[in-house]
Amino acid sequence: MPKRILQGKVVSDKNEQTVTVLVERRFKHPLLQKTVRSSKKYRAHDADNQFKVGDIVRIVECAPISKTKRWTVLLDAAEAQA
């Protein structure tokens, strides 16, 4: 089964080797047919502490690293386009 890749914004980098990434998704409400925004925070492993608050990053699923970390920062979204 392929690993999921999500894109979001770094909202916290206070922990060592960890960043908190806010991933927002948009979908159409099944009954109201209105576009709804839903967001969720993921804790991701950042081995080099290179990502700062405000960076747009991609995260990928991985084996559990700690109690709350199940994601790894793949690369900066700006680097992905270059």
From TrEMBL:
Q: Which GO terms describe its molecular function?
A: rRNA binding; structural constituent of ribosome
**Known InterPro entries for this protein?**
NA-bd_OB-fold (IPR012340), Ribosomal_uS17 (IPR000266), Ribosomal_uS17_bact/chlr (IPR019984)
Q: From its record, what is one biological process in GO terms?
A: translation
Which key words are in the record? Ribonucleoprotein, Ribosomal protein, RNA-binding, rRNA-binding
A single cellular component GO annotation? cytosolic small ribosomal subunit
Protein family membership: Belongs to the universal ribosomal protein uS17 family.
> According to its UniProt entry, what is the function of this protein?
One of the primary rRNA binding proteins, it binds specifically to the 5'-end of 16S ribosomal RNA.
Spell out the subunit comment: Part of the 30S ribosomal subunit.
Protein's name in the database: Small ribosomal subunit protein uS17
Q: Per UniProt, what is the name of the gene that codes for the protein in this document?
A: rpsQ
